[in-house]
Each structure stands twice: as C-alpha cells, then as structure tokens.
Design a protein that fits this description.
Blueprint: E1 4-5, E2 19-24, E3 28-34, E4 40-47, E5 50-51, E6 54-55, E7 62-64, E8 69-74, E9 78-84, E10 86-92, H1 97-117, E11 123-127, H2 134-147, E12 153-156, E13 169-174, E14 191-194, H3 204-224, H4 226-231, E15 233-236, H5 244-255, E16 260-264, H6 267-276, E17 282-286, H7 297-313, E18 319-320, E19 322-327, E20 332-336, H8 352-356, E21 359-362, E22 371-376, E23 390-400, E24 405-410, E25 420-427
Parallel strand pairs: 11-15, 11-16, 12-15, 16-17, 20-25
Antiparallel strand pairs: 1-18, 2-9, 3-8, 3-10, 4-7, 4-9, 5-6, 5-8, 12-13, 13-14, 19-24, 20-21, 22-23, 22-25, 23-24
The protein binds adenosine-5'-triphosphate (ATP).
Length: about 425
C-alpha cells in the first residue's frame, strides 16, 4: 500500500553538540542505544564496518531513532562518529561474529551443493529463548547471502514483533538487497498472513496452520524459481520455547523440512531438539552476542506500537495515512476462532481444535474502535479466508452506528481492493502529532 510523503529535516532532534569519535580495532564492535526521545547520527569516518551484516558507506549519515539498539562491527578496523544523545555507548571485542560468519560459510556451501545437484537449498531455523538475538542473526545470515548474489527467503514467525509486517502476522519475504542499516529490509512485497495475536498462545492451532501454509507457499515458489530454491530460507521463530511453544518449533522444523536448526544460548533447548528431531537435521548450539539487549514487557509493547505506527506513517514518520469511512454494508468482518466449548457441547465429529480456525462473523459496533483489521486478499467466501494472505491493514478510529459507517486509517486511499476483513486482538491508538 503506498502513501503520501511529508519529508522532515533529517537532523531535527539530534543534539549536534554531543559528538564522540571511536576508533575500532579489527573484530571489534561499537554498541550503543539511542536515548528515549533523542535521535543519533552515525558516520563512518574511515575504514570499513557493517551493521547487522549490511556494509556502511562513507557518503551517508545514518540516523537512528529513540530506543534503537545498534551494533557496528568491523572486520578490518574503522573510525566511527556518533552525534546525539546515546545511552551506554561502548566498544567490545567480545562478539560471536566469527562463529556466525563460519555458520554463513557452511550454509553457503550447502547452497553450492544444492545448485550442483538441483536439490532444495538450505532451510535454516533460528530458535532460542527471548532476547538472544534471533532476529539479528537471521538478518545477518540473510544479508551475507544477498551480498553473495543469493535470493534467500526470510520466513518470520515472530508474531510478537513482526519482522516482515506488523505484529500479529506471519510472513515471508524473498530478499534481493541487503537490509538498509536504518530501515531494515525492503518490505514492498512481503507475503503476509493474519494471525491476530502477539503470542502463538493466542491460537496455537491457527499458528500451526499458518506455518504449514507458509511452508507450502515457499515450496511452490521453489518449484518455479531455481534461484529461490537454491538460496533456501531462514526461519525466525519467537522466543516461546517451552511446552506448546516447543511443539511449535518441532512443527516448524517438520513443515519447512529444516536441515539446520540454530539454537541460540539454550543448552536445554539444544538437547531437547537433538533428541526429538530426526538425525538428518543438524542441530547447532551457538552463543548469543553479549551485546543483545534484554527488553522488558513495556519495551516489547512499545516496540510493537512503534512497528505498527511505522506501517501507517512510514519509517521516520515521513508519510501520512489516509482517513475515510467504510459503510457497514460494504464489507464483512470476521474473527478467526470461536470461543472454546467443552467437549460435551461440540457437535458430533467436531474436534475442539476445529473451533480455533472457524470464521466467526463480527457485527460492526463501538467495540471495534482502535482494533486493527487485516484486509484479506480473498475475493469470495468460497476461498479459505484463514489461509489466504492479506493485502494490508487498517485501524478503526471511530464507529457511527447511526450512519452505519466506521472510520479507518489506511496507508492506501479508497477504494478498498477487497471486502473481507479479519479482526485482530491488537489495538493501535493513533496519537500521532
Ligand atoms: N550485538 C549487539 N549489540 C547491541 N545490540 C544488539 C546486538 N544484537 C542485537 N541487538 C539488539 O538487541 C535487541 C534484541 O535483539 P533481537 O530482536 O535480535 O532478539 P530476539 O531474540 O529476536 O528477540 P525476541 O525474543 O523478541 O524475538 C534488538 O533491539 C537488537 O537491535
């Protein structure tokens, strides 16, 4: 969905008096966090450096927003300059980057073999508890692959943070260019599915259905695109690794026919997976970077809000969403999953799990306000709405039962390309100034 621009001055909000230069020896990393409410400019003055696998260039200043947690690594040494208010900026030589680079080299070897034999490319699952750097390692491995001319696919199952779209979704993105150091991967053409909750726990059955669906879609893409097939995929999972969360990891490994499972920082998970996955799956334990920042519940919630805001207002809030009314008769809204019933109340032959993927019509009412709605790509109800990808999202800002309309914010103008909405548990309160 496209939107209208309103570019602001790049250096607004940066405290230009706060300047600090850092000289990094080879294999060192500069880590910093941007202070709340501040913005920070990073310049590469000399040498070479990369940010989560993307090479920095000298001709550009990189501006990071409030709360960003950044690591700039150098293989050969460099000089960097930070301008603006940073929290805890320090240089460290304690990084697992060489281990990650070796992992990349081994994966690349698998790609070469798959090319020679025309077999499926490597399918890598990255898992581990919360805040061990799973998304960062995924981004690093994707960037390194792209820098070698590969077209790897990022499969993002982290419904809590939303790597390829907003939180509450899962999706796939075939990457052709390294991530922008500030804005991340180019998200113009991701394939996104509605989940609706910020934890798989919200609807386990649906989560598993969507994982299987993504695996099928990725396999289909591999069938007609050899470059995608040989480049393989990196599957980023969420940090829920116990009980049903663990079962979801097994289900994911099986659905994607994972060859390699990278377990970050959890010996217990590593041993469990080694025991439960077939022998041909290479389960590898790797350390987390000491730089990875642990996030509180509030920080996660703020990050989710920021991600959603970014969807409607663009990176650095350079766009404005469109606001318009939709009449009740124009669209149909559904929720996925009926309330759980005791077994004795279920119709004969129906399993409890079936209710979790049932479409339940939602009558538009005042309680829709602030909810995010996913616009399904389905053209008719004959299609399976649960397993159909979505075109985009709107947030409901008002409901007027008298006029029989509800107002939305949308990154794209009218008309809506489709008529079926799926409602999320997630809400977004628009307080953009
Ligand atoms: N080496 C590093 N130095 C400084 N910050 C880092 C480093 N690696 C990652 N981070 C930051 O730490 C935070 C958490 O990392 P990341 O999102 O990769 O963890 P995760 O395990 O995927 O988290 P989640 O459990 O939410 O899925 C991110 O803000 C990231 O930018």
């Amino acid at each position: 969905m496209a939107a209208t621009t309103n570019v602001k001055s790049e250096e607004k909000g940066i405290d230009l008096k706060e300047v600090c230069d850092y000289k990094l020896a080879k294999d060192n990393e500069l880590r910093f966090e941007v202070e709340t409410g501040a913005r920070v400019k990073l310049d590469l003055i000399d040498g070479s450096a990369e940010l989560f696998g993307t090479e920095l260039v000298r001709s550009r200043s990189y501006i990071f927003e409030s709360g960003a947690k950044i690591a700039v690594f150098t293989w050969f040494g460099c000089s960097l300059r930070l301008t603006g208010k940073v929290e805890a900026a320090y240089v460290s030589k304690d990084t697992p980057m060489v281990i990650y680079l070796n992992t990349h080299a081994a994966i690349e070897q698998m790609r070469k073999v798959s090319e020679q034999k025309d077999t499926l490319g490597p399918r890598i699952l990255v898992c581990g508890p919360q805040d061990v750097g799973k998304s960062t390692v995924g981004r690093l491995l994707i960037n390194y692959a792209v820098r070698l001319g590969r077209k790897p696919t990022l499969i993002d199952l982290d419904v809590g943070q939303g790597g390829v779209s907003i939180p509450g979704t899962v999706g796939a993105l075939t990457v052709e260019r390294p991530a922008d150091p500030v804005d991340g991967f180019d998200l113009k053409v991701p394939l996104v599915y509605h989940f609706g909750h910020t934890s798989p726990n919200g609807n386990i059955k649906l989560y598993e259905v969507l994982i299987s669906r993504l695996a099928d879609v990725f396999n289909a893409k591999c069938d007609f695109n050899k470059q995608v097939k040989h480049s393989g995929c990196i599957v980023n999972t969420c940090g829920w690794v116990k009980g049903q969360g663990y079962q979801c990891i097994l289900h994911t490994a099986q659905s994607f026919e994972a060859d390699v499972v990278l377990v970050l920082d959890s010996e217990r998970l590593y041993n469990d997976l080694k025991r439960d996955l077939p022998d041909f799956v290479n389960v590898i334990l790797q350390p987390k970077s000491p730089g990875v920042v642990e996030r509180t519940r509030e920080m996660r919630r703020d990050a989710r809000e920021e991600k959603t805001k970014e969807y409607f207002y663009g990176p650095r809030k350079i766009y404005f969403p469109h606001a318009f009314d939709i009449s009740f008769s124009e669209v149909q809204i559904f929720k996925i999953g009926a309330p759980a019933l005791p077994d004795s109340c279920l119709p004969l032959g129906m399993e409890k799990e079936d209710t979790q993927t049932k479409l339940v019509p939602v009558a538009p009412g005042i309680d829709l306000v602030h909810h995010i709605l996913s616009l399904s790509m389905a053209e008719s109800l004959e299609e399976n709405l649960v397993e159909t990808n979505v075109a985009g999202f709107v947030v409901v800002t008002n409901v007027d039962p008298e006029r029989q309309v509800f107002s939305v914010l949308s990154p794209a103008p009218r008309p809506l390309p489709r008529n079926y909405f799926l409602i999320m548990d997630l809400r977004f309160i628009d307080i953009h100034k």
